[in-house]
Amino acid sequence: MNRNFTTNDLMGRARGKLTVAPTPRTGLLLELFQDSISPPGHPLHPRLIGLGAALLIAAFATDLAYADSLLFQWENFSIWLLTGGLLLAAIAGLALVLDIALHRITGIDWLRFAGFCAAALLSVLNAFVHSRDAYTAVVPQGLALSALVSAILVIVGWRGWSVGARNSSYPIESEETR
């Protein structure tokens, strides 16, 4: 597909001299979006899951720092890390839907998917616990939830951050197959 237009083509369309109407291409915006964010055939969601998991694990580290020092800024930092990790988890869910729609993955490993969903749901609960006031915002429930989420993420993410089934392949389309 020729995406480059010359000035004469645009002027011809504006003056009505173009005799053949251009055919609208369905999914052109999606195709342009797909090529700009990730190489063809490679899923996008693992990068976002990995970034979100890093923030949620960092929240456990700041909870430990708060429990040790009782400086309230560590508790503030924890809730910001939880919020950022949950926001990236939501975006990763949308990227997973996009990867499935674009056939970047052919199947889902439901056990890994359930593990990541459990970590996200426990992090939502942890955010509610962190919204309390003073020492009880972190110790002991918030610290325990952060430790549990970190353990789940380390165990489930040990082999990578993709929820694509291991027996599926990521086919890369060549120009000849399009």
Describe it for me?
The longest helix is centred in the middle third of the chain and has 30 residues, at 72-101. Helix 5 runs antiparallel to helix 6. The chain has a domain at 44-159. The protein has helices spanning 7-15, 28-37, 45-69, 72-101, 110-130, 141-156. The chain is an all-alpha fold and 178 residues long. It is 62% helix and 0% strand.
Mean pLDDT: 82
Order of helices and strands: HHHHHH
Largest sheet: none
Helix content: 55-70%
Low-confidence stretches: 168-176
Count of DSSP H/I helices? 6
Backbone structural class: mainly alpha
Strand content: under 5%
By DSSP, the count of extended strands is 0
Shape: elongated
Descriptors for this entry?
6 helices; 178 residues
Give the SSE map.
Layout: H1 7-15, H2 28-37, H3 45-69, H4 72-101, H5 110-130, H6 141-156
Helix pairs in contact: 3-4, 3-6, 4-5, 5-6
